[in-house]
Design a protein that fits this description.
Layout (H helix, E strand, L loop, with lengths): L1 E6 L6 H17 L4 E6 L3 H17 L4 E7 L14 H13 L7 E6 L4 H5 L2 H8 L20 H13 L5 H11 L10 H11 L3
Parallel strand pairs: 1-2, 1-3, 3-4
Helix pairs in contact: 1-7, 2-3, 5-7
């Protein structure tokens, strides 16, 4: 089956790179075939404003369904800015309705806080990224990363303390993707589970 995915990053952005590999793991785990067509929307504002048109294009191009994935907040929100996905959802649904998208053809998945929330669920994947042959790294399980105020800040701290590296998401996107080997840890995240069900048509 062919599935479309809208993400709020560029073509080589974190979500685009990692979600492609996660999709392959999901398909292999469920013994199904998924042909994924990713449309990078550059940023959250454009994704919400143009999701109707982009979804219509994907459906016209043979996709059976489209998953629209975005963060609850921008990467660097203004101090005190509210974190609310209700308004985002209302806007996305309005755009889909205006584009005459059937309700069973598009599925909204808003990640609590930001994409790093998903990554922080898998400490073994992080150990793979942060370790070197001469310097293996142990990463403790993160407690409720989707509930933390600043998952990107948590990732920055882990990279600095455990590996002496500066965390820049796009620079490590391919390493994150290649180091994911299983889904059992990230499946503890409710929004990832929703993403998986949307991807496979089980919502």
């Amino acid at each position: 089956m062919k599935v479309g995915l809208l993400v709020e990053c560029g073509r080589e952005g974190l979500e685009a790179i990692v979600c492609r590999n996660l999709c392959q793991l999901i398909a292999a785990d469920r013994d199904i075939e998924i042909e994924l067509e990713i449309v990078p929307m550059d940023n959250k504002a454009r994704l919400l404003e143009e999701c109707g048109t982009a979804t219509a294009n994907l459906l016209a191009n043979g996709c059976e369904r489209v998953v629209i994935l975005w963060d609850e907040r921008p990467a660097w929100p203004e101090m005190g800015a509210p974190l609310c996905w209700h308004n985002d959802r209302v806007q996305a649904l309005a755009e889909l309705q205006a584009a005459n998208i059937p309700e069973d053809a598009a599925f909204l998945v808003c990640i609590e806080r930001e994409f790093e929330s998903w990554l922080l669920f898998d400490n073994k994947m992080l150990e793979c990224v942060l370790s070197r042959p001469a310097h293996p790294v142990r990463v403790d399980k993160q407690r409720n990363p989707h509930r933390q105020a600043n998952p990107k800040g948590m990732m920055t701290t882990l990279f600095r303390k455990l590996a002496g590296k500066t965390y820049v998401d796009v620079q490590f996107a391919r390493q994150f993707a290649s180091c994911f080997s299983a889904l059992n840890r990230i499946r503890r995240c409710e929004t990832f589970k929703r993403f998986e069900l949307a991807l496979t048509g089980e919502l």
